[in-house]
Amino acid sequence: MHKQLNERDKRRISLIFTLILAMDFINYMIGEWFDTGGMIFSLALLGAAMLYSYKTIIKIKISPLAWAFMIYVILLYVTTRQVTRTTLFGRVFMFSFLAVSILAMYKCDTEKLLRYMSYVSLFPWLFYNDIFVEMTSTQYNTGVSLGLSYAIFPLLVAPIFHFCFYRKQAKKYMYILYALAVFLLVNLMLKGNRGIMVSAITAAALIFIRGGGDKRRSGASMIRIVIVAVVAIICVANFYEIVEWAYDYLNERNINANFFKKILSLQKRGDISNGRNFIYEYTIKEIFEKPFWGHGISTIFDNSGGRIVYPHNLILQLFYDGGAVLAIPVSLVICSAVAYAFIGEDREEALFSMFLLVVCLPRAMFSADIWRTESLWLFVLHSMKYHQIRKERKTRLTAADAEHIDEETAITEGATE
After folding, report:
1. Coil, helix or strand at residue 217
2. pLDDT tens digits, 18-39
3. Using CA atoms, how far apart are residues 410 and 284, in angstroms rounded to an integer?
4. Contacts of range 385-390, beta carbons closer than 8 Å, 24 or more positions apart
5. Fewer CB within a 10 Å sphere, N or C end of the chain?
6. pLDDT (mean) for 382-387
7. pTM of the full predicted structure?
8. Could you tell me how many helices (H) and strands (E) the chain has, helices first?
9. pLDDT (0 to 100) of residue 403
């Protein structure tokens, strides 16, 4: 799939992946420090990192499937771009989709990525008071904002993944990072939005199913999948009772739990979707108007008269923007990547897929504009190379079997002589 990478190449790619996954929080830091938007700075930083690593990047070999997908999406964007869209969106699109898609073709050193992300997890401590105290201490600000919650989450879940799967390789100081990340993650789950709780529960379920061992045990994984499925069914069937009990339990101990509080508040209002039902109904109606080719990338804002910024659902946005031609292939790739996270032969690739799944998929399903979610396209495009991984592994196994047969033949012939 690509030329062999040396250790320096692996470090550079892992650092660039870390930058991509931390980009939203970098934007927040720049905004806090300089009282201005940090998006342009983040894009410039990513561009500089790519230029610095150009000798590594030129080693890439992009699969025909990935080329076809990227070219189609670019053509779709160019031919359907609304005149009211800003030029800034074009720059964001080129980096959030195109640059990330090219980099996604690399085989990632998952341990390095998670370790580097663990280092970056220290940065939210610089803004602890602003994020976890001031944002949650007034009548109007009762929780960490939606965008900021999703910006922090990847930084905090990475040390958890590193502990579960790579702690045997970790130096002692990493255990301090593990503990600090757990503390902040618990705070974020209590004071963040509902999507963070869903993402955290998803992470816990996937880690439990995959297990922390070096070898895959399909039988054990199947048992764990059944356990998770049974627990999920019980929780869904008794959802509101569990939420009420958890809220009362924490409230009695003066612990502010924005997740439970918001669910109970929306239940009383009769709209647990928090306005998303209207968005979904409009989007589905418009999808049937152009089911095959779709309406074009990020055109729903103009088409809806400014009432809807984006559909708040990965599948609906894929169908609305690109129709069945875009939505079906991407959905199949995502399903394949999810399966690979459970049963992938290459442990490093499977864990990388699992980490990206936790970071991007719950967010994309409920709360994000997919074209500004870099982790989603890192996940999707990287997943397009898994068939090549299987092909290369099959080739290696075939070659090994052939070599073994030749050795046995030589031994037999020698014995006969």
Report:
1. coil
2. 988 998 898 888 888 876 666 7
3. 66
4. 385/1, 385/63, 385/66, 385/105, 385/107, 386/336, 386/337, 386/340, 386/344, 386/349, 386/353, 388/1, 388/63, 389/1, 389/345, 389/346, 389/349, 390/345
5. C
6. 73
7. 0.85
8. 21, 0
9. 59
